[in-house]
Design brief:
Layout (H helix, E strand, L loop, with lengths): L1 E7 L5 H10 L3 E4 L3 H14 L5 E5 L8 H13 L4 E8 L2 H11 L6 H4 L2 H17 L3 E4 L5 H12 L9 E8 L10 E4 L20 H7 L3 H24 L3 E8 L5 H15 L3 E6 L6
Helix pairs in contact: 1-7, 2-3, 4-6, 9-10
């Protein structure tokens, strides 16, 4: 069983790190007291499978003597049933002060020391023994979220520096509204509408004859070529930036014909690029 303990300065990036690690398969527990860590490790080991990779966030919020934590850490490291590593996150004092001003959240030690700077400097001293035991130290002063994700993937994601990107392509009808979760929206109402062909009206873009009709026009072919080229360019950059899910919405008037046919074609292209892709037709069954 793998246990990763995340510690470090308040405002150093522990919460972001925990979220990223959760995305790559770790079971996350925030703010666990030292006295409970061994019990939790025993429980996870007994369950087998479900909690094989756990990441525990431990910091000054526990409000306890760090010597107990260091004792627990050594006990975990000496037990062959566990692979226990300690990740320590920090940042410059100026950066942490700026982050707390932006979030308007109080530093855990602010009430005791009267200013963020005094609280941060005291926290540095408190955590010095923990930092000395760290397997990995990340100074997040100049890190964007994407850079932090890349570093954590390199350390704990099997060597990859990119997260898996899942692309969800959804067809919809503009008369029912644009999907709220959409990242990219494309309007295909300029294409000839199968609705006005009597034998196609009651069918959908999943029918081959509707699909063939939509793609029989040169403007459809040109649109698809340019859209595919655009996504060929964009998808690697979304992945590099650390985006986990990209929602592409394709809209026509009612969401029955053109948007469904284009979605089908786009899903096939994205799949050919080696990306994980899902296909959804939000309004296809609406009257």
């Amino acid at each position: 069983m793998e246990i990763l303990i995340i510690s470090g300065l308040s405002g150093g990036g522990k919460s972001k790190a925990a979220s990223i690690l959760e995305d790559i398969g770790y079971y996350i527990v925030d703010n666990m007291p030292a006295g409970m860590i061994l019990k939790f490790a025993e429980f996870c080991s007994a369950v087998r499978g479900k909690y094989d990779r756990a990441a525990l966030v431990y910091d000054v919020r526990a409000g306890e003597d760090f010597q107990e934590f260091l004792h627990v850490l050594e006990e975990l490291r000496s037990n062959r049933a566990y692979t226990c590593r300690l990740l320590f996150l920090e940042a410059s004092v100026d950066t942490i002060i700026m982050r707390y001003k932006e979030t308007r959240r109080p530093h855990p030690l602010y009430a005791a020391y009267g200013s963020i700077e005094a609280a941060v400097r005291h926290e540095m001293e408190l955590l010095r023994p923990v930092r000395e035991k760290a397997d990995f130290i990340i100074n997040s002063t100049t890190y964007s979220t994407a850079k932090l994700r890349g570093e954590l993937l390199r350390l704990f994601g099997g060597g990859s520096t990119r997260a898996d990107l899942t692309v969800n392509v959804v067809s919809f009808g503009f008369k029912y509204g644009i999907p709220m979760e959409a990242d990219l929206v494309f309007d295909v109402r300029f294409m000839p509408n199968p609705y006005y062909i009597e034998e196609l009206r009651q069918k959908t873009g999943l029918s081959q004859d509707v699909y063939d009709y939509v793609f029989s026009f040169p403007q459809t072919q040109t649109f698809m070529e340019r859209l595919e080229n655009l996504l060929d360019f964009l998808l690697p950059y979304y992945q590099e930036e650390g985006k986990a899910v990209l929602v592409i919405a394709i809209g026509c008037t009612g969401g029955h014909h053109r948007s469904v046919a284009v979605t089908r074609a786009l899903v096939d292209h994205i799949r050919s690029l080696g990306c994980q892709v899902t296909e959804n037709h939000r309004d296809m069954t609406r009257n």
